[in-house]
Amino acid sequence: MSKLWILAALALSACATTGRLEPPTITVTDIAIDYFTAPDSKFTVQVKLANPNYREIAVDAVNAELRLENIPVGTAALAAPIRVPPRG
């Protein structure tokens, strides 16, 4: 019976050490104009994600607002889910 308590204590302590994940930092590295017409435009925005955590994180969605001189001109979204390596 004591072995069961030891295993349970180890399992609970393993859960307690995972801690809370810090959010990744996002830095815009490049913006390219794909097309620009009077009523419409399309931009490709490249970003760098930095994961400050010691384990991999999954990023399922990014939603952002594109502003030029603090004026909202569009929105941005992640094209596909990605995984960011630890400390990467």
Explain the overall architecture.
- This protein has 88 residues and is of the alpha+beta class.
- The chain has one domain (21-84).
- 17% of the residues lie in helices and 47% in strands.
- The protein has one helix spanning 2-16; strands at residues 25-36, 41-50, 57-59, 63-68, 71-77, 82-84.
- The strands form 3 sheets. A two-stranded antiparallel sheet has the order 1-2. A two-stranded antiparallel ribbon has the order 3-6. The protein has a two-stranded antiparallel ribbon with strand order 4-5.
- The mean pLDDT is 80.
Strand element count: 6
Coarse structural class: alpha+beta
Radius of gyration: 21 Å
Helical content, roughly?
Answer: 10-25%
* Number of separate helices: 1
Oligomer: single chain
Major pleated sheet: 2 strands, antiparallel
Please render the helix and strand layout as text.
Layout: H1 2-16, E1 25-36, E2 41-50, E3 57-59, E4 63-68, E5 71-77, E6 82-84
Antiparallel strand pairs: 1-2, 3-6, 4-5
